[in-house]
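Data card: per-record layout.
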Amino acid sequence: METHVILPGEIGVSDNPSTVLKTCVGSCVAVAMYDHDAKIGGLAHIMLPQASDEKEKARPALYARSGIPLLLNKMIKSGASKDNIIAAIAGGSFLLTDRKVGVELNIGRRNTDMVQQVFSSLGIPIVRQDTGGYFGRVLELKLEDGLIDIREVKEKKQKDTESEVISDFKLEDLKNKIDKLRPVPDIARMIISRIKYSGAGAYDLERYIIKDQALAANVLKLCNSPEYGFQKQIHSIRRAGELLNPETFKNIVLDACNYNLYSDTIKGYSIEQGEMLNHSFCCAEVARLISQEKKINNPDVIFTAGLLHDIGKVILDQYFFEKFNLIMDKIINENIQFLYAENEVLGYNHAQVGEIIAREWNLPEILIESIAFHHQPEKAKKHPEAVSIIHIANCICSMVGHGGGASIPGNRINGFAISCINLQKDDVDKIIEKLPEVMNHNESPV
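The structure for this 446-residue chain is written out next.
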C-alpha cells in the first residue's frame, strides 16, 4: 500500500485501490469522503471554518466552506457520484490547558461546526464523526475498500516534573563531548561552496543558516565567544552579519559548517525523515508572525529563538541515539508527549539539556529561556513574553500537523502564555491563514 499524506490546507483525491490517504489533525478537521461504487476517495485537511470571498478564492482548500465543495467537485470529475458519497470527519480538538478560555479561541469547535453545516447544505451524510476533546487524531482512508481508521493520539497523565532533578547525568561529560552540533550536511556543503566560489554575502548566507537549527546554534555560539569581545550579546543571525566584518562572519560560518562534516554516517534528524528540522523552522516562522502581529520584541530575535527552541532534541539525537530511539518508541507506542517520554527514559528532558548547552555557549538570556521553558512559559523570569510566543508557535505547529512527526501528540497551549501576550481569536486566525505560505517556503534551499 502507498500512503499519501495530506498536509494542512491541502486536499487529495484518488481512485487507486493501493493508495491510503492519511492526515494528522489537532484543532484542524480531517474530512474524508468515499464513493463505494466508484471506489473513489478524497481527503481534506481543513484549517479554518471560513474567510472572505477573496481569501477563499485564493486558497479554497484551507477553509471548510470552500474546501469541502472543492473536494467534492474533484471527486465528481474523477468519476464519483454525489448520491453515492458518504463522509467521515475527525479532529476539531480544543488543545488549550486553561479550560476557562473562551469558546471564541476554540478553533477546533468552530471548524467542526462549519464542516457539519457544509455537509448538511450539500446533502451528504456524515456516517462517522470523532471530534472535540483535548487530543490529536490520525485519520486514514483506504481506497481499496473505503475503510476509515481514526486513531486518537492521547497523552497519558504524568506526574509533575517541575521539581525533577536530573539523575545519572554526567554534566561535564556532556559539556566536553558537545563542542559543536553537527549541521545538516547538504546545507553545510552548499554554504561552503557559496563562500568559496560565489563570494556570498552575509544576507545570502543568512538564508541558508536559518534553515538548520544546529548550524544557527554553532554560529551564535562562536559569535558570542570571548574571542570577538562584543559588549552586547548577539541575539540573531542577521545581527551577527551586520556587526561582524564580512570576512570574519564568513570564517565563523565556515568553522561552524566544517565540524565533522565528512565523518561517518550522521544519525541526527531521524524523526520522521527530517520533521524535527521542518518543525523548528515552521515554529520560527510562526513565532515571527506572532511577534509582528502583537508588536512584541524584535521579530528577528524571536525567529532565532523559535529556530533553536528544540536544540536539546538535536543533542539527544546526535549524542544519545540509542536512547533517543527508546524515547521515540515510547512516544509512538504509549502516546505520551516528548517531554514525558524523555523524563521516563533518561531522567531529564530536551529542554533541560538545551538550557545547559545554551548557557555553556554563552547565548543571550532570551534564547536560553526560550529553549529552557518553551513547554513551561510561566517559569520564564526575564523574558516571559518572548517565551510565551515560542510556546504558542510550537503548539500551533503541532496542532496543524507540523509537530516534529505525525505520531507525536500535539502540545496544549498554556493559559499563562495566552494571557501574557493577550492572544485573541483574530490573532490565531491570521496566523493560521498564513501558515500554508510559511510551509511552502519551509523548504531547503539546496
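Known properties of this structure: The longest helix spans residues 275-294. The mean pLDDT is 80.

See the next section for split statistics.
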